[in-house]
Specification:
Layout lengths: L5 H4 L4 E6 L8 H8 L3 E6 L13 E4 L15 H13 L3 E5 L1 H9 L3 E17 L1 H4 L10 E13 L8 E2 L7 E4 L3 E4 L7 H11 L13 H28 L4
Parallel strand pairs: 1-2, 1-3, 3-4, 4-9
Antiparallel strand pairs: 5-6, 5-7, 8-9
Amino acid sequence: MKYPWDSAWGNDMRVHVVQHVAFETPALIADWAGEHGHELTMNLALTEEYPACEDIDFLVVLGGPMDADDEAVNPWLHAEKHFIAKCIATGHGVLGVCLGAQIITEVLGGRVRRNPEREIGWYSVSKTVTGEAEPLFAEWPESLVVGQWHGDTFDLPEGLEPLYSSEACVNQAFVFDRRVVGLQFHMEWSEESLAALVANCGSELNGGAMWVMSASEITDEAPERIAANRSLLTTMLDSMSAAGLM
């Protein structure tokens, strides 16, 4: 689907978003696209209704509460993984967030598994030695506080190394072929999209878990964290555009 304000944005770049649930939206990514005059289209993965790869320039795969490796429960994952694989094979820029990063990892030959700890809230991630050398993250700091909402993680395919890690989860970011980016964490949250996530998945915020914040802690920190992450997300997306990766 197209947002109703697409016509005002122009068609400099065609950004397509794969959404897994209605309450997880592109949020700040949509803001970035609008500010740059890019066309933005979306589809829900469960519909299996994807555009032709040649009709888009850049693919964004969002998060969701389902398991990336559970085709038995979510058979539509077959079509989604086929679409992502085709976009990667045809040279598209691709950004995967949380579940999206996990799905991309599987497409590339990695493995999704349960993380030792659930990680939900605002937590610090640190740049690895490999991350220090990655141009797309050159303007990102050594350590930053990001949004987390996941119980799974992934083992990267051979040849890829994590670019950011946290105490709770080793694999937080990766880049493949200089144009495919996976982020286990959330830089795209807006206050509105985070509120929707808390409203729909708040049952996961049970007390006592080491790396799980309460709903009030998450929402109280949101304005400061989102403002900082907006700038960093824009920097990364601008870098991808400038390098001709989208």
